[in-house]
Design goal:
Layout lengths: L19 E4 L4 E4 L7 E6 L10 H19 L3 E8 L4 H10 L3 H18 L7 E4 L4 H13 L3 E4 L8 E4 L15 H8 L18 E5 L7 E2 L5 E4 L2 H11 L4 E7 L3 H14 L5 E7 L2 E3 L2 E2 L10 H6 L4 H9 L7 E2 L2 H20 L4 H12 L4 H12 L22 H9 L6
Parallel strand pairs: 3-4, 3-11, 4-5, 11-12, 13-15
Antiparallel strand pairs: 1-2, 6-7, 7-8, 8-10, 9-10, 13-14
Helix pairs in contact: 4-6, 6-7, 9-10, 10-12, 11-12, 11-13
The structure holds zinc ion.
Length: 421
């Protein structure tokens, strides 16, 4: 499906220095060495399109955007894939509640998401597929898992046939990403879409692979498994395989996806006989009014509303940059004011002439150091004050705005923030 229009890109000549990224699985920061020399392959989990993009989403896609910009700056080609979970319980429930067609609801929210991504100057993924679009391929993966003896039926009294679950005990691959014990998993599994207590399951964490058709729900034909729709995790395995191939370099997403989604996606992939991602990068959660932003709490701050209220999307990016992508933080109006003030100062400095090779070097090295955006902002603050290291000789004054020391060009290429305007 059409994703959105990427911002115009003018990358700097490659630095040749690798991105060093924190890997959730190992708990360490290590250089990204692509499995395919010369090309980094990145997957970021997409939205369930039943509500607009809020700051939590923006933080996730901003972090992934910085990863790909850092990989490109190191001299790698980047291939990225992203899904849209347009067949899922929350979407179907919302459509039902509001009396609208689920496909129309999904289409309208996908459209709004694309507008938000464009406004934020997020580079579009090379592969962008929704579950309904990829259904034929997803069914093939589900059937392959059945053929490999990983699927088992569980009675579904309200359906014509059984539901099917993935038997995690066959491969014993659970917890590879999170490193959690089953006890830790069970603490959050039910809250995050799991059904640990369903009668007939062999293992409490076993994920739903194929849900038999229920009255009023969309369904597709999956041969011996009957009509129904796929569980959540298998879609990302399928869309990653189709788009960027398995295994790939980096799986990205919000930290609430570590378990169950990323643990169980990896388990599906292992059950298919293939390793999944080489590394896992997770972004922190964004809070508002003292609680993590969530639909159920109703404390969401939407990107499109901020933009509608006149907030420059580049201000939103600067708010995001003020926090390390892995940390949890809280959105506030004060943050917005600080970022607004920053953008004004940076734009003023850009108009004065932005050349400072040493500032550009700090920006690049901060980005490749596990996306250290706070350090980049410090360097930019100093640059805007005209206080970049004196060896430049031209900091903040009279530079030509071109060449290796062009700060506005570097801020655009590395951080997606345009200082024009
Ligand atoms: Zn996913």
């Amino acid at each position: 499906m059409h994703s959105w229009t990427s911002p115009s890109l003018s990358p700097l000549p490659p630095s040749g220095r690798p991105l060093r990224l924190h890997d959730t699985r190992t708990g360490r920061i290590a250089p990204v060495t692509p499995l395919t020399p010369g090309t980094a392959r990145l997957y970021v989990c997409g939205i369930t399109p039943y509500d607009s993009t809020h700051l939590g989403h923006a933080a996730t896609y901003h972090a992934a955007d910085l990863m790909r910009r850092a990989l490109a700056d190191s001299g790698l080609a980047v291939e990225m894939a992203q899904n849209v979970t347009d067949v899922d319980d929350p979407l179907l429930e919302r459509a039902d509640r509001d009396g609208v067609d689920w496909q129309e609801l999904a289409a309208s929210q996908v459209d709004l998401f694309a507008q938000d991504m464009e406004a934020l100057r997020i580079i579009a993924p090379e592969t962008y597929r929704s579950v309904s679009e990829a259904m034929e391929d997803i069914i093939a993966v589900v059937l392959a898992l059945h053929e490999r003896g990983r699927a088992y039926p569980v009675d579904a009294p309200d359906a014509a046939g059984p539901d099917w679950y993935l038997d995690l005990s066959v491969d014993g691959a659970l917890g590879d990403v999170s490193g959690w014990s089953e006890e830790q998993m069970l603490e959050v599994f039910a809250d995050r879409g799991g059904d640990p207590d369903r009668a007939g399951k062999r293992g409490r964490i076993d994920p739903l692979l194929w849900r038999a058709e229920r009255e009023g729900e969309p369904a597709w034909d999956a041969g011996v498994l009957g009509r129904g729709r796929p569980g959540w995790h298998v879609e990302c395995v399928c869309i990653a395989e189709q788009g960027i191939g398995l295994p790939f370099d980096i799986q990205a997403g919000g930290s609430d996806l570590i378990f169950p989604h990323h643990d169980l996606s990896a388990a599906h992939s292992v059950a298919l006989g293939r390793p999944f991602a080489a590394a896992y990068a997770h972004s922190g959660m964004v809070a508002h009014e003292g609680e993590k932003m969530s639909k159920s709490l109703g404390n969401l701050v939407f990107v499109h509303r901020l933009v509608r209220d006149g907030v420059d999307p580049m201000v939103i990016r600067l708010v995001l940059m003020a926090h390390h992508y892995r940390s949890d933080w809280e959105w506030s109006d004060q943050e917005l004011e600080q970022a607004r003030d920053r953008l004004d100062r940076y734009r003023l400095a850009a108009r004065r002439g932005g050349s400072s090779p040493s500032t550009v070097e700090v920006l690049r090295s901060a980005l490749r150091d596990d996306l250290d955006t706070a350090r980049a902002l410090e360097a930019l603050d100093a640059w805007a004050e005209g206080a970049a290291p004196s060896k430049d000789g031209v900091a903040g004054t009279g530079g030509t705005g071109t060449g290796a020391g062009d700060v506005p060009a570097a801020v655009d290429a590395l951080f997606g923030v345009t200082l024009e305007g």
